Amino acid sequence: MLLDLKIAALLSTGWAFSHFLTVVAIELALVAPLPKTVPLFYLPHGIQLLAAWAYGWRSVLYLLPVIMLITFGGADIQKCELSDIFMSFFSLISAPLAIYVVRCLIANERRFARLRLNWRILILGGLLATVFNSGSIQVVNQSTLPLPEGMSYFLWLVTSDMAGLMIVLTCLMFMFRWVRMLYQNKLESP
Questions:
Q1: To pair with 173 at 20 to 30 A between CA atoms, which of 8, 48, 53, 80?
Q2: What range does the domain containing 115 cover?
Q3: How far apart are CA 51 and CA 44, in angstroms?
Q4: What is the domain-level CATH number for residue 67?
């Protein structure tokens, strides 16, 4: 139980920090033709995907408090619409669902090699999760956006989610290399 709380705290902190970075990036970027709610890159998508890859469906429980707090923290709960709750819930389950589907489709993925880092699963899962999530946003917002604008909004959401995933994976790769370099230097020094 204590380990689960530590994992939830770590993932929640990472998600909240990446969400903050994304919001600051939105405010600093000039995205004129699209709504201001669309970021250039969405880093929390990468955090959610890594959590789903490492912890499976438990990642939903780990990230639920922080996503609900950030989504509904500043809003009056009586003014929250059903569409907000639906989009938050579907955003939360899209990453574990996509990772599960991709793992089932890739035949050579072994159960015992679950935690071996497989870039194909992460990238394909990220693409599928962003299509699920962006599709649900489009279904909810269908009445407010005409088809051409809705399609460009959908493609922008997919692009920003995938850019966020690539940034998170690149940062993770450099972090692993840095840790390996520190460890090798520690072994080589007397």
A1: 8
A2: 2-188
A3: 10
A4: 1.10.1760
